[in-house]
Design goal:
By secondary structure, this protein is of the alpha+beta class. The protein has two domains: 351 residues, 3-Layer(bba) Sandwich (FAD/NAD(P)-binding domain), CATH 3.50.50.60; 118 residues, Flavocytochrome C3, Chain A, domain 1. Helix content is 33%, strand content 17%. Strands 1, 2, 3, 7, 8, 9, 10 and 17 form an eight-stranded mixed sheet that branches. Strands 16-11-18-19 form a four-stranded antiparallel sheet, covered by helices on one side. Helix 13 packs parallel to helix 15. The longest helix is centred in the C-terminal third of the chain and has 25 residues. The protein is globular and about 70 Å long.
Length: 632
């Protein structure tokens, strides 16, 4: 597991190999065979030169590529799954925007105020305002492109309550909102002839720490290596919630690819300690292992669903009598965890979510996918409760970017969507994840277009003929050689076993409730787990599951270390980060913790959070707040 750049080594300092890849100078489909040998044969790789490489094919990546296309800039979107098969589809409940369809008093400043309060004022105010100002127009745009949001009787985009929101501002398509949005974005991208390559996994970014030049990837269909040369690279590859055993995404999603790639290239990471455990993930033997942790959308509670413990008590009355089940996600998740810890949970470690008191036809209309999913498992949610428990759902932290441009500290390297940090602070407001992707992507696309990117010239046999640095070609070939060595790894431990052990480690030491001793123990265990990767065994070739899991593991280890370190450094409880040894919020810790790749490992530093604008401060001072009993 040594394919990442060794500590202290700069890409620019790599001497060009005497025998570099050779081939013709074709722009978009140039295949080269390098003479450098690794294992029992020469490296065989394809080269692709493109102005902008977009890594990740969910809503953030698709919307960025659309913006670029509309501005006349060529991009290539690469995804490690089939086209249209992205984590966006699992964001079911809705997307925020202050349209005021049902509550005319709502506006972007109140949306911003709710976002800051939910984030416990650790959010980047520029990020928050960028998203909340843009969202009304973005919602109308998505509707025009075919998302087809549910409408009111008057024909306006309908909106529902989501947790901790002062007004009904969450637009929705039943309970399949993310799927509908991604379908619309994919269709729009296709109408603009945006090129896309599926089943391609990026393993390394080519960077000298100051500028990005492209990426190394593996085509998971045929195992061929790919060298992408690009003037700009946009990372839109999701977050890292799959570090945990129970998580709401599929096992091969949110495995830290995006943040780890950017970090290795020289970008800073921020707010890694803040992981949102969604209160309502599926749990229980009745549903089967396949469904463990899968999200029961917040829309169930937004439409009036109630939480009960095993004793039949509606326990949120103890924790949040005013906002009840629609309090902030961190509040509800900790309440459930406490009920279970104190012996009032189910035998599967959960509680019950019940919407059977609502009219059955209403439930079927508003929550069709939930009705269908549970019906397939023998449960009628219009008649009975479902068993749930908190599940790792979203990572507020990620790559530190300039929120006026989306660019990292590495020139030409951008991040957008869940890969980026800043909007959510210490806890995400429900409905803001999809909002972040489509609000920030146009900003990124606009700034990239203003750079007027061109496809790098890879030259021919002579490196002097190219404007692509020969050192990058040399590094790319070294990275490919390391990947070939990984494919041949014949140790004693399969990658899946190591990932399972990592997830248990994170569950045990960095879950909903933490303390310093446990976090230190987790870091010690992580070092031991890293040592075990030297004995990894990869069965099959580069198209097989073992090889991909070994790559996932490397990304996951990087973010696991940052998460544990951040949680240990932050000696307070704030938002989704709760420590029993520091149970109170500390004004001194209204600071972000950032990580930068140092010569000997992960270096951290802190940064003070800026104040919100006068407009948003006015909304904060007004004290808007949801009164749950509006739903009763």
């Amino acid at each position: 597991m040594t394919y990442h750049r060794p500590a202290g080594e700069t890409y620019g300092g790599i001497a060009p190999t005497e025998e570099r890849g050779r081939g013709t100078d074709r722009r978009d489909d140039d295949r080269r065979r390098g003479d450098r040998r690794s294992g029992d044969g020469p490296l065989d790789y394809e080269t692709v030169s493109v102005p902008v490489l977009v890594i990740g094919a969910g809503a953030a990546g698709a919307r960025t590529a659309i913006e670029l296309a509309e501005r006349g800039v060529e991009s290539l979107v690469v995804g490690k799954r089939d086209h249209g098969d992205a984590h966006t589809t699992w964001a079911a409940g809705g997307i925020n925007g202050s349209l005021g369809s049902l509550d005319p008093d709502d506006d972007w400043t109140i949306h911003a105020a709710d976002t800051l309060k939910e984030g416990h004022f650790l959010n980047d105010p520029v990020a928050v305002e960028t998203v909340t100002k843009a969202m009304p127009d973005r919602l109308r745009e998505l509707d025009e492109w075919g998302t087809n949001f549910d409408k009111t009787d008057e024909g306006r985009i309908n909106q529902r309550y989501f947790g901790a929101q002062s007004f009904r501002r969450t637009a929705f398509v039943g309970d399949r909102t993310g799927e509908a949005i991604l379908d619309a974005l994919v269709a729009k991208a296709r109408s603009l002839d945006v090129p896309y390559r599926e089943n391609v996994m990026v393993t390394d970014l080519l960077s000298d720490g100051q500028r990005v030049y492209g990426a190394v990837a593996v085509d998971l269909t045929d195992g061929r290596f790919v060298l992408f040369a690009a003037d700009s690279v946009v990372v839109a590859a999701g977050g890292f919630s799959a570090l945990y055993g129970r998580h709401s995404s599929r096992d091969d999603e949110n495995t830290a690819d995006g943040p780890a790639l950017a970090y290795e290239a020289g970008a800073d990471l921020m707010d890694l300690e803040f992981v949102q455990f969604h209160p309502t993930g599926m749990v229980g033997n009745r549903y089967g292992e396949e469904w463990s942790g899968r999200l029961v959308t917040e829309a169930v509670r937004g439409e009036g669903g109630r939480l009960y413990n095993a004793d039949g008590e509606r326990f949120m009355e103890r924790y949040s009598p005013d906002q009840m089940e629609l309090d902030a996600r961190d509040v509800v998740a900790r309440a459930i965890a406490r009920e279970v810890r104190e012996g009032r949970g189910t035998e599967n470690g959960g509680v019950y979510l019940d919407i059977s008191h609502r009219d059955a036809d209403y439930v079927r209309e508003r929550l069709p996918k939930m009705v269908e999913r549970f019906a397939s498992l023998g449960v009628d949610i219009t008649e009975e409760a479902v068993e749930i428990a908190p599940t790792a759902h979203y990572t507020m932290g990620g790559v530190d970017i300039d929120w006026t441009t989306g660019e990292t500290r590495v020139e030409g390297l951008y991040a957008v969507g869940e890969s980026a940090a800043g909007v959510h602070g210490a806890n995400r407001l429900g409905g803001n994840s999809l909002a972040e992707t489509v609000a920030m992507a146009p900003v990124v696309g606009r700034h990239v277009a203003e750079r007027d990117p061109e496809a790098p010239d890879l030259g021919d046999a002579d490196p002097a003929d190219a404007d692509f640095p020969s050192g990058m070609v040399a590094y790319a070939e070294r990275a490919m050689g390391a990947l070939a060595d990984l494919e041949a790894a014949d140790g004693d431990t399969r990658p899946a076993e190591l990932i399972a052990d990592l997830r248990k480690l994170m569950d045990d030491h960095a879950g909903i409730i933490r303390d310093g001793d446990s976090l230190r123990e987790g870091l010690a265990d992580l070092r031991l787990l890293r040592d075990r990767t030297a004995e990894v065994r990869v069965v099959g070739d580069r198209t097989g599951e073992d090889f991909e899991l070994a790559l996932d593991l490397a990304f996951m280890l990087t973010l696991a270390e940052g998460l544990l370190r951040g949680a240990l450094v932050r000696e307070e409880s704030r938002g989704a980060h709760f420590r029993t040894d520091y149970p109170e919020k500390s004004p001194a810790w209204r600071r972000n913790i950032l990580f930068r790749r140092g010569d000997t490992g992960m270096d951290h530093f802190t940064r003070e959070v800026a104040a919100p604008s006068p407009e948003v401060q006015k909304a904060l001072d007004a004290g808007y707040e949801l009164d749950y009993h509006h739903l009763e």
